[in-house]
Structures
1.
Amino acid sequence: MITGTTRLIAHLGYPTESFKAPLIYNPYFEKSDIDAVVVPMGCKPEDYPSFLKLVFRLSNIHGALVTMPHKVTTMRLLDDVSTNAKVAGSCNAVRLGPAGRLIGDMFDGEGFVRGLLRKGKRVEGAQVLIVGAGGVGSAIAASMAGAGARRIVLHDDNAATSAGLSGRLKTYYPMTEVSIGSTDPAGFDIVVNATPLGMRKNDPLPLDVSRLSPSTFVGEVVMKEEITPFLAAARARGCAFQVGTDMLFEQIPAYLEFFGFPTASADYLRSIARLQ
C-alpha cells in the first residue's frame, strides 16, 4: 500500500518500459514492512535538469535511482558526489543530505566488485583488463581501483574515452597502475567485458578468448541473457565467471545502505524479485 507516509524513491530515466528496479525493490520493501516505494518517472533529457531539482522539493521524497540517459547529466546538478562517481563521470543514485544538499554516488562498479568478492575472487593486488571504458566500464574501473587492484589496463575503441578514464583513475587512485592497451587477455587475473557486445545475436566476441588462461576470472555486464557467447566461450576455457545480472543484484544492497534502509543479500533479493 502507498499511503500519505510512504517515502518515494524516484526511478528517473527515459523511456521507462524496461525498468527492472521496481520489480526488485518494491517486493523487498513489502516483505520488510518498509513504508517506501520505487516509482518509475519517465523524464525526457530536455526536461531533466529542472525536473530533478523539483522532485527533490517534494516533502515525501527520499531519494532517486538514475538511469539512462541521465547518469552523466546528473553530475553537474548535485552538491556532493562520491569519488567513484567522479571517476565514472556519471551518477546513478541521489539522496538528500543536510540542509537539502543533493548527494550522488555510482554503484554499478560497486555491484560488480561485491559480486567478485562474494565469489571468493581477490581484487586487492590483482591485474585487471577492462574492455570498454564508457559509463559502466568507468564505474567498474573506479571500484576495482578502490578495492585495491594493483594494475588496470583499459581498452576502448574511442581513444578519447580511454584517455579520459585513465586520467581520472590516476588522479583519484594514484596507487593503482593504469594504462591503455589492447584487448589481449593474457596474463590478467580478472578480465571484464564492459562493452555492449553480446546484446545482438551476431555480435563478435569482445576479445580473443583463446588467449584466456583458465585461471582468469571473467566478468560480463550484458544482461540480455545469462550466459552470453563471451561467457560460454570463457566457461569452455575453464574460467570462473560472473554473469551480467549479478552486477545488478549485488549493487542493490549498496543502494539500500546509501538510502539508509536495512540491507539484504543479493541472493535474498533474487528470491523475492518479480522479474519476468
2.
Amino acid sequence: MKFLSRFYIDGFILSIIAVAVLASIFPAQGTAAEVLSWATKIAIFLLFLLYGARLHPREALAGLTHWRLHAAVLTATFVLFPLLGLALSVLEPTLLSGGLYTGVLYLCLVPSTVQSSIAFTSIARGNVPGAMVSATLSNMLGVFLTPLLVIALMNTTGEAHVDASSVLDIVVQLLLPFVLGQLLRPLVADWLQRNAAPTKLVDRGSILLVVYAAFSAGMVENAWAGLSPWQVLGLVAVMCGLLAVVLAVTWFAGRRLGFSVPDQIVVVFCGSKKSLATGLPMATVLFAGQPIGLIVLPLMIFHQIQLIVCAALAQRYARRADPQPEPADTGH
C-alpha cells in the first residue's frame, strides 16, 4: 500500500476493481453463492457489533437527535435523485433505450445503502453515529417510499407489495448487533481504541464482499446480455455524470447548511448512495413480467461506480483530517 501511494494509486480502490473482475470471471453460483451470502451477512453483523462497541452512548444519542442532518440525507435520497432521474428522460431514446431509462429512473427511487455508507463515513472519520441513523432511516423508509414513488412516477405491472421481512432483516443485521456492541462496550472499548485494525479490516472486507456478491449476481443473471458495447459505455457515462452531480450538490449543501466537516461527510456519503441489496429484491416484485436484468443493470453499474469513487473520497477525507483519538465525531 505504501509503495502504491507513491504513485497516487490507492490500494483499496485497486482491491475493489480486482474483486469486481474476479467476480465477473468466477461468479459465485449455487452453494458458493449461499456461502457468500452468509459471509456477507456475518461481516455486516460484525461491522455493526464493532460500531456499537466503539461508540459511546452519548455519541449514539447525539446521532439520533441530529434531525437536520437526517433531513438533508433523506432530501437527497428521495427528492434530489428522483428529480434528476426525471430530467434524464431527455436522453431517451437517443442515448438510453426505453428499458435502460426505466432502470435509471428506478435506481433514483431506491433508498440509500446502509453498510457501505457507514463504512465509508468511518474510513473518512466522519460522524459515524449520524451516518448510522441517516442510512438506516433511509433504508427503512425506502421499504415504503420506493414502491410509492415507483407507482407514482413509473408504469409497473402487477401489484406492488412490501415484504415485512425487509424490515426484520434491517433489525436483525443492523440494530441487534449494534445493541449487543453497546452492551459489550465496557469490556472491549479500551482494547478497540488501542487497536483500530479489527474495525478497519471489517470496514474494508465487508465492502469487498458486497462488490463480489453484486457482480456475481449480475453475471449469473446475464444482466449484460443483449446490450452493445456502445450502449454499456453510454450507460456508464450517464451513471458517472449522475453521481458527479449528486456528490457536488451534497457537498455544496453540507457546507451551505453550516454542518461541521464530520456531518458534511455524512451528507456526501449517505446522500449519494443507492442500495443494491434493497433495490434488487424490490425490482422483482415491482416489475413482474418485465426484463428485470435490464432494469436493474443501471443500479448495478451505479453501485460499483459509487463504491470506487467513494473509496477514493473517503481516503482523501481521511488524509486531510487531523489525528483524533476516536474515528467518529458528532460535532454539530
3.
Amino acid sequence: MQFGIFTVGDVTTDPTNGTTPSEHDRIKAMTTIALKAEEIGLDVFATGEHHNPPFVPSSPTTMLGWIAARTERLILSTSTTLITTNDPVKIAEDFAMLQHLADGRVDLMLGRGNTGPVYPWFGQDIRQGIPLAIENYALLHRLWREDVVDWEGRFRTPLQGFTSTPRPLDGVPPFVWHGSIRSPEIAEQAAYYGDGFFANNIFWPKEHFQRLIDLYRDRWEHYGHGPRESAVVGLGGQFFMRRNSQDAVREFRPYFDNAPVYGHGPSLEEFTDQTPLTVGSPQEVIEKTLAFRDTFGDYQRQLFLVDHAGLPLKTVLEQLDLLGEDVLPVLRKEFAARRAAGVPEGPTHAARVAERNNAAEQKEGTQR
C-alpha cells in the first residue's frame, strides 16, 4: 500500500486574516511540502496540472524534476496530466526525461481536467474530450513501447518513422493511472491497457465511485489481466487534524466555507458525511481511511489533499507531522494485516523491471 499527498496548487486567500500568497510563495510552498512528504515517510508526492488562475502548477515535470534532485525515495507523480490538450509526443518525451532524472521514481495520472476553457486555449474542442483521451493515449502508449512509430489519427498531424527520445528508463515506461471522477469510458480505458485506475472520490458520494471501480475491476478481468482483485486502484482523500476534534472543526471551518471549489455550498458536516473528508482527531482519520477498504476493496494507493483552500504553509506542515507520527504507522500496519492474499502491491519501477525480466526468462525457457 502506497500513501502520499497531492496538491492542486491553488492560490487562495486565507479567510482568517485576508492574506494571499504570491505565485512565487505558493510554488515554493509546494516544493517544501514535497520534501516534508519524504521526511515523514510518505511514498508519493503528486501535483495537478492547471493553466489558469488561481492555480499555478502549469509545468508539472519542471516541479517534479526539482523535487527529484532533492529526494531519494519519493515516487513523483501527477494528480492530473491533461491527456486531452497536451500533445502525446511531448508527454512521452517529458516523462521519459523525468524518469531518467529520478532513477525511475516517476508515474503519472492521465485525466481531462476540470477547466472547460483549457480546450480552446490549446486548440481543442471540449466536445471531443473522450475521443481525445482515447486517441491520445493510444499514441502515447505506442511511443513508449515502439522504437519507431507510424501514426495517423483524427486530432494531430501524422507521424512517419518517429522515435520519441529519450527512451523509457530500462525499457519500462512510467506507470500510468487513468483518473476520473465521472466517466465510465476512462475506467474502461484503464482496464483495456492493464493500467491503474484512480478514483479521485473527494467530491461525490461513495456509491458513484463504487460503480466506477467495480466496472474497472470487471473489465480488467475481462481483458485477461488477472482476477478482478488484482486490478490496480488508487483513491483520493482529504483531512484536517488536531489532537482534539473540536479544535480541528473550529480551525478548519472558515477554510472549508470559503474553499474555491466547494465553498459556499454544502455544510462541513454534510460534506464530511458524504465524502472522504475527515476533520477531527488522528484516530478519526485512521478509522475513516480504513473504512475505504470496506467500500472499495483492497487498493494500492491512497493520496490525501492537505494544502488547499488557503491553509498557510505552517499549518500544512503541522498536518504532515501528525500524519507521519500518529496516522501513517497505524494505516500501514492495519492495511497490511487486512490485505487479501494475491492482491498486488503498489507499482514501482524496480518491481515492474523485475516483472518484465521474469516474463522474458519464462518465455525463453518455454522456447528451449
